């Protein structure tokens, strides 16, 4: 479904603050894979997401979706296949526009945008139905400006917008990190439910170790721009947080350091 | 008095298309576009030269619209593809248009007295009322289409709309282009109504457009697209009423108008930020008093 081969990325090459963000990343996701990603600050997790989604281009290597190389396409063209939720709840929605207008823009993902009405009666009914699945009452506020919503509500809406057109790939970059524990738990639950219901191929960066083990069918660990461990489903099922941290230390030679780390 | 009142309303409507153009760049795209000063004159110049050469005023107005679209597209291209700062792109285009306008007109002033314009057979007030209502409603409708939503999102959260598949370079170019098209049409109508085109008639247009948008928002609100475009149109009318009133004041000169306009815009821009910071400071003060009281409370409990 998604394949990365020998992907490398340097920042500020040849200068004093040259930074190796990714080195020789090889990763292959099967359809329906739900992979959680953990790693220290600066390990290259966000860079990996940005290279898959097209915000940045790799310096070397290839990104393929369903066998097609896509790493040369600009971000807006890749969005046909890729849904994204950002860490910042403000990043995934347009605050001065209404809930239904935001959904309409997500609904137009991957289609040519022309002079058809963004929100009509049938789309509105569909949006309402989709919002009901979130179970937080947004279906009654279709015409409210998104800027009025709380961070958690906005993130739930972003999640819906990223997924309801069933993209081939879903990228989640610490999308619960900016929320308080109760709301983070809500978004986590919704994520699990939506990804399973739709069978989306998903890559989820998280700083919550317990979550990384509990969710998904595969776990990868990154450090200093490399994937240092890839844990398959059978092993992951019996893994504990202590074992995971121990394993990290053993392979990387230092402790997992993450300013937002949550153990469980 | 009634005469000058209806005259002011008429002017307000003539310039309201320009205000709608400024609304598109300034409010929707969040792009301070100074092309306006040049493209307004371009619209007037194209119309005047075409009409005085015997072309239909309708055709002339249409060509003016097209030339405004082209001017705006250039600014958009400079900004998106040339990666030139937005303000600077507009200034560059404005300067370039000065020469181009001079080339179009051949001389600094073209008179349309004695030639048939659109307003030869229709009263400007009635005509403009109809045109402005139609343009406003069309713009509203456009801003609710898929493309219109993408345009609005480009100014609201460009990162998001890119991740949803819109090419924000294209939407920016489209928006700036459409804006200057409207500005040029406004120039075309003003030239026909006033009976001349002048090379310097666009100077200060951007500030007048901003003043109209800001006054409109302050009085009529901007909750929805419908309200916001209505506010831009009515803001333009109110601006002309203010000007008409100012001109009746003994000790004010006509040349003071630009200063008055600038002051209106400055006040309107400074007030909301100032009000916000005062509010924030008093909220912070109240909260820290509360916290201090809460911290003091247990101690008092201990003394008993
Ligand atoms: N735009 C950029 N310019 C220069 N350096 C960058 C840029 N983006 C990231 N980096 C550097 O690349 C490295 C990888 O960053 P990245 O954001 O991918 O890490 P991360 O794993 O997401 O970390 P975190 O857990 O803090 O989010 C870091 O050392 C970072 O400083
Ligand atoms: Mg990151």
From TrEMBL, chain A:
- Domain ABC transporter span(s) in chain numbering: 2-249
Which superkingdom does the taxonomy of this entry point to?
A: Bacteria
Q: Write down a Pfam family by its short name.
A: ABC_tran
Q: Where would you find this protein in the cell?
A: Cell membrane
> What keywords is this UniProt entry annotated with?
ATP-binding, Cell membrane, Membrane, Nucleotide-binding, Transport
Q: Which InterPro entries match?
A: AAA+_ATPase, ABC_transporter-like_ATP-bd, ABC_transporter-like_CS, ABC_transporter_ATP-bind, P-loop_NTPase
Topology term for the membrane: Peripheral membrane protein
For molecular function, the Gene Ontology terms on record are:
ATP binding
Q: What is this protein called?
A: ABC transporter ATP-binding protein
Automatic annotation (TrEMBL), chain B:
Give the membrane topology, semicolon-separated if more than one.
Multi-pass membrane protein
Major location (coarse): membrane
Mind telling me which Pfam families this protein's record contains?
BPD_transp_2
This protein's UniProt keywords = Cell membrane, Membrane, Transmembrane, Transmembrane helix
The record's subcellular locations are: Cell membrane
Keyword Signal in the entry? The reply is no
Q: Does the keyword Membrane apply?
A: yes
Q: Which InterPro entries does the entry link to? A: ABC_transp_permease
Signal peptide limits:
none
CDD domains the record matches: TM_PBP1_branched-chain-AA_like
Please give the start and end residues of each transmembrane region: 12-29, 58-79, 86-106, 118-139, 170-190, 196-216, 228-247, 259-278
Q: Which PANTHER family match?
A: ABC TRANSPORTER PERMEASE PROTEIN YPHD-RELATED-RELATED, BRANCHED-CHAIN AMINO ACID TRANSPORT SYSTEM, PERMEASE PROTEIN
In Swiss-Prot or TrEMBL terms, this protein is called: ABC transporter permease
């Amino acid at each position: 479904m998604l394949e990365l081969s020998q992907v490398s990325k340097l920042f500020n090459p040849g200068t004093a603050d040259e930074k190796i963000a990714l080195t020789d990343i090889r990763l292959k996701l099967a359809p329906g894979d739900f992979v959680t990603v953990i790693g220290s600050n600066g390990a290259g997790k966000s860079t990996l997401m940005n290279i898959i989604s097209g915000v940045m281009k790799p310096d070397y290597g290839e990104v393929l979706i369903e066998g097609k190389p896509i790493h040369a396409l600009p971000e807006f063209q890749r969005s046909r296949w890729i849904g994204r939720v950002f860490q910042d709840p403000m990043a995934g929605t347009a605050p001065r526009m209404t809930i239904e207008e935001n959904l309409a823009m997500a609904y137009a993902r991957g289609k040519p945008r022309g002079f058809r009405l963004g929100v009509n009666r049938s789309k509105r009914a569909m949006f309402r139905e989709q919002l009901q699945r979130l179970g937080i009452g947004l279906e009654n506020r279709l015409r409210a400006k998104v800027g009025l919503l709380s961070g958690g509500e906005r993130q739930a809406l972003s999640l819906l917008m990223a997924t309801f057109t069933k993209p081939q790939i879903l990228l989640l970059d610490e999308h619960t990190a900016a929320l308080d524990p109760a709301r983070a738990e809500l978004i986590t639950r919704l994520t699990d439910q939506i990804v399973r219901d739709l069978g989306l191929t998903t890559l989820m960066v998280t700083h919550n170790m317990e979550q990384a083990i509990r969710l998904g069918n595969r776990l990868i660990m990154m450090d200093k721009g490399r994937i240092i461990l890839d844990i398959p489903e059978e092993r992951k099922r019996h893994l504990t947080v202590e074992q995971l941290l121990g394993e990290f230390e053993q392979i990387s030679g230092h402790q997992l350091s993450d300013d937002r780390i949550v153990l469980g | 008095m009634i005469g000058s009142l209806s005259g002011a309303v008429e002017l307000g409507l003539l310039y309201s298309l320009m205000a709608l153009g400024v609304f598109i760049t300034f409010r929707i795209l969040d792009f301070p576009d100074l092309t306006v000063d040049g493209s307004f004159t371009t619209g007037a110049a194209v119309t005047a030269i075409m009409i005085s050469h015997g072309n239909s005023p309708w055709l002339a107005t249409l060509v003016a619209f097209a030339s405004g679209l082209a001017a705006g597209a250039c600014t958009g291209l400079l900004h998106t593809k040339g990666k030139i700062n937005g303000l600077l792109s507009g200034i560059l285009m404005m300067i370039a248009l000065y020469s181009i306008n001079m080339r179009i007109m051949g001389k600094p002033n073209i008179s349309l007295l004695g030639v048939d314009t659109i307003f030869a057979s229709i009263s400007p007030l009635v005509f403009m009322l109809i045109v402005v209502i139609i343009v406003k409603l069309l713009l509203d409708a456009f801003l609710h289409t898929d493309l219109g939503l993408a345009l609005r999102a480009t100014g609201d959260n460009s990162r998001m709309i890119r991740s949803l598949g819109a090419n924000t370079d294209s939407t920016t170019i489209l928006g700036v282009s459409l804006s200057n098209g409207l500005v040029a049409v406004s120039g075309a109508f003003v030239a026909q109504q006033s009976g001349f085109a002048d090379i310097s008639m666009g100077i200060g247009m951007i500030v007048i457009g901003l003043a109209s948008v800001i006054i409109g928002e302050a009085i009529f609100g901007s909750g929805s697209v419908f309200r916001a475009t209505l506010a831009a149109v009515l803001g333009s009318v109110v601006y002309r009423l203010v000007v008409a009133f100012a001109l009746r004041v003994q000790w004010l000169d006509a040349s003071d108008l630009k200063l008055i306009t600038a002051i209106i815009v400055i006040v309107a821009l400074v007030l909301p930020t100032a009000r916000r910071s005062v509010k924030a400071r008093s909220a912070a003060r109240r909260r820290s008093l509360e916290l201090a009281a809460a911290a003091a409370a247990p101690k008092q409990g201990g003394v008993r």
